[in-house]
Amino acid sequence: MRNALAISGLDCFYGEVQVLHGIGLELRDGEVLCLLGRNGAGKTTLLKAIMGLVPAQSGSIRLRERELTALPPHEVPKAGVAYVPQGRRLFAELTVAENIEIGLMARNKGAQTRDSVLDLFPLLRERLKQRSGTLSGGEQQMLAMARALCLEPDVLLLDEPTEGLMPSMIAKIRETVGRLRERRVSTILVEQRVEAVLSVADRVVFIENGRNRETVDIEKLRADPALVKRYVGVG
Amino acid sequence: MAFFPHLLLATLEGLVTSAVLALTALGLSLVFGVMRVVNVAHGEFFMLGAVLAWAITTALGGHPAIGFLLALVVSPLIVGTVALVAERLVLRRLNYNPEATIVATIGMLYIIQQAALTLYGPDARPVEPPFSYRILLPWFGYSGYKLSIVAASILLLLATWFVLTRTKIGLIMRATQYDRETAQAFGIPVDRVYAGVFALGAMLAAVAAVLVVPISQAHYLMGLDPLLLSFIVVIIGGLGSLRGTVVAAVLIGLSDGIISVFFSPTLAKMIATLLVALVLVFRPQGLFGTAAR
Question: Which residues are in the ABC transporter domain (chain A) (predicted)?
Fold first, then answer.
């Protein structure tokens, strides 16, 4: 199977402190790859490194044939990587429609994309004129995902999309990730809790202290929950 | 003069001050809001605009209106270019670090000021207004040009508002203002936006200066007052808020006009400063600003 994204030997620093140590992983075409690990393991940093927001000291990040580490940060989304940051990071003062517009502008997508994205989140269609900061947490998460999907990305990066949401919303977001998987959007999903990924992920990469440990298929993980205990602590 | 005509005159003078101040302060506020840096050299861009207006009108000769209109276009363009070069050579290399930018723009202030002193000289020089029509009121005649400053300022403020809220460029600027990192993650070239905003801010100051120079005179030290008043306006109005900037400019301009006429200019400055202190104590985000997240 082809790789949508291939990372190898990636080292990243915050100032003097090394946060990522030679990370290497492959995202296959159309799969949902989950990064699982404790707080501070480097999951979010890895996503930021892919987006070019944290510079890579060494190593490579390849989107198909394209080397992303050589691009300035604002060219990475144009190459086809969309990012749903942790904590949503909406442009809170802007309306729902304006947030979506910014997503569309990134790769010059038009009304057709907008419609198909809004079909995925019908709730947002009723709120287009509302200031996005006044949406509920779940609605904000939907908007953050909608904004990213407006890029029609080849690779989607999702950073803890269910964090801080109520259970009914968590179910909805998970359902959406499932639907994206059916659409064959290659996705990297960051989570802290394993039960959040069992139903949607294809493979799981465990991240520990800025290094990637085992990569396991989801069936194996379902069969052997002890793995999770080892890397994430509470299972 | 009786009380009412006196008040009317003071109000008109205050409105002219407000109009010029609103444009100048809006430039500072945009830079402050989008880039989160304080541009101490803002007043010098104002001065440069006025001095260039003198140079252009003098070099051209002929009817004052032709020179003035040319200055109104060319002077802001030159000032914008100077600001763009300064941004690329200095601010970008400092990575827009707030403290370093303050020190660097203080340096720019002196460089621009001394360059003006060297090339333009220490004299205050007048620029002829483009027209000298006087509006005759029952009590006194009033300069039609001064009222046209108010009109021009309103037009420019409306244009800025339109660009900020109704165009793609404005959307990009606002997105950059609210979240620089996420803006980058959506393909917005933040450093180019910064360069553009810095140049735009300087150009607004330059336009204000060209408008005011026929009624004040160009001088190499004229940048100080607009800088201080702009800071006052931005603090009172709220960081990066267009509405707040305009309201605060009108407030400060009018009170300056009216208090100066009935009491003394010093009292006007004292009240403005007191207002800043009160705003900083009781509403640090400004009248129309939103608290930083």
Answer: 5-234
